[in-house]
C-alpha cells in the first residue's frame, strides 16, 4: 500500500480538482469577446458560459441572462453541461470513498478493504477527469475553429476564457490523484513478486535412510 503522505498529497490534489471542476461548471466565462468600439468608455466584455451569458461594461455595470432553452443550444454546449455535471458527481463520490480508504484514516476496516476503497476512489477520479477534459477540449476546439474562420465577422469571434483553463487544470489534478489512488492497492502485491518469501529445504527421511544404507554396504 502506498505511503500515507503520498495518499494525502493525492487527496489534496483531488480537493483542488473538485473545487476547480465545480467552479469551471458554474463560471460564465467559457469564451470571452472584448468589443472596444470607438471610445474606451463604451467598451464592453461579453462572456458566454454553459448556463448563462454575461455582459460587463467598463463603467462597472454587468448583466447576465440565463440559458433556459436546452434544445436551442449547440450540441457541444449540451454535451459539456452533461459531462461536467457527471464529473462533479464522480469527483464528489471519489472524495467520500478515498476518505474511507486512506491509510492515515481509521475508517474502512482492514487493509484489503482500504485497498479496494482506494482503487474505487481512484477510478472515480480518473473518470471525473476524463469527463471534464473531453468537453473542455471540444469547447476549445469550437472557439478556435470559429476564430480562424474568415467568414465570421470579428465582432462575433471569441477567445477561451478563464473557465476553460480552470477546467484543464482541475482535470489534470483529478487524473493525477486518480492514478495515485488506483495504483496504491497494487504496491503490496508487486512487493511479493520482487521479494519472494524464502523457502527452507529440509532433508527428507528417505534420503537419510538411503545414505545410512549405503554406508553400511561399504562397511
Automatic annotation (TrEMBL):
<dbReference type="GO" id="GO:0005923">
    <property type="term" value="C:bicellular tight junction"/>
</dbReference>
<feature type="transmembrane region" description="Helical">
    <location>
        <begin position="161"/>
        <end position="181"/>
    </location>
</feature>
<keyword id="KW-0732">Signal</keyword>
<keyword id="KW-0812">Transmembrane</keyword>
<feature type="transmembrane region" description="Helical">
    <location>
        <begin position="84"/>
        <end position="105"/>
    </location>
</feature>
<keyword id="KW-1003">Cell membrane</keyword>
<dbReference type="InterPro" id="IPR004031">
    <property type="entry name" value="PMP22/EMP/MP20/Claudin"/>
</dbReference>
<dbReference type="Pfam" id="PF00822">
    <property type="entry name" value="PMP22_Claudin"/>
</dbReference>
<feature type="signal peptide">
    <location>
        <begin position="1"/>
        <end position="24"/>
    </location>
</feature>
<dbReference type="GO" id="GO:0005886">
    <property type="term" value="C:plasma membrane"/>
</dbReference>
<keyword id="KW-0796">Tight junction</keyword>
<dbReference type="InterPro" id="IPR006187">
    <property type="entry name" value="Claudin"/>
</dbReference>
<keyword id="KW-0965">Cell junction</keyword>
<dbReference type="InterPro" id="IPR017974">
    <property type="entry name" value="Claudin_CS"/>
</dbReference>
<dbReference type="GO" id="GO:0005198">
    <property type="term" value="F:structural molecule activity"/>
</dbReference>
<comment type="similarity">
    <text>Belongs to the claudin family.</text>
</comment>
<feature type="transmembrane region" description="Helical">
    <location>
        <begin position="117"/>
        <end position="141"/>
    </location>
</feature>
<keyword id="KW-1133">Transmembrane helix</keyword>
<comment type="function">
    <text>Claudins function as major constituents of the tight junction complexes that regulate the permeability of epithelia.</text>
</comment>
<protein>
    <recommendedName>
        <fullName>Claudin</fullName>
    </recommendedName>
</protein>
<keyword id="KW-0472">Membrane</keyword>
Amino acid at each position: 500500500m502506498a505511503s500515507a503522505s503520498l495518499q494525502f498529497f493525492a487527496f489534496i490534489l483531488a480537493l483542488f480538482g473538485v473545487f476547480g471542476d465545480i467552479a469551471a461548471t458554474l463560471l460564465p466565462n467559457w469564451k470571452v469577446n472584448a468589443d472596444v468600439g470607438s471610445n474606451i468608455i463604451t467598451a464592453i466584455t461579453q462572456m458566454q458560459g454553459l448556463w448563462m451569458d454575461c455582459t460587463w461594461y467598463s463603467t462597472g455595470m454587468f448583466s447576465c441572462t440565463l440559458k433556459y432553452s436546452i434544445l436551442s443550444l449547440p450540441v457541444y454546449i449540451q454535451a459539456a453541461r452533461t459531462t461536467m455535471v457527471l464529473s462533479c458527481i464522480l469527483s464528489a463520490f471519489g472524495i467520500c470513498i478515498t476518505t474511507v480508504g486512506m491509510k492515515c484514516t481509521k475508517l474502512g476496516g482492514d487493509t484489503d478493504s482500504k485497498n479496494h476503497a482506494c482503487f474505487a476512489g481512484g477510478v472515480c477520479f480518473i473518470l471525473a477527469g476524463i469527463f471534464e477534459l473531453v468537453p473542455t477540449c471540444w469547447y476549445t476546439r469550437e472557439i478556435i475553429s470559429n476564430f480562424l474562420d474568415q467568414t465570421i465577422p470579428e465582432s462575433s469571434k471569441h477567445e477561451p476564457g478563464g473557465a476553460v483553463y480552470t477546467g484543464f487544470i482541475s482535470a489534470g489534478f483529478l487524473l493525477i490523484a486518480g492514478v495515485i489512488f488506483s495504483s496504491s492497492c497494487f504496491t503490496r502485491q508487486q512487493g511479493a513478486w520482487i521479494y519472494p518469501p524464502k523457502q527452507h529445504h529440509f532433508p527428507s527421511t528417505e534420503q537419510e535412510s538411503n545414505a545410512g544404507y549405503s554406508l553400511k554396504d561399504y562397511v
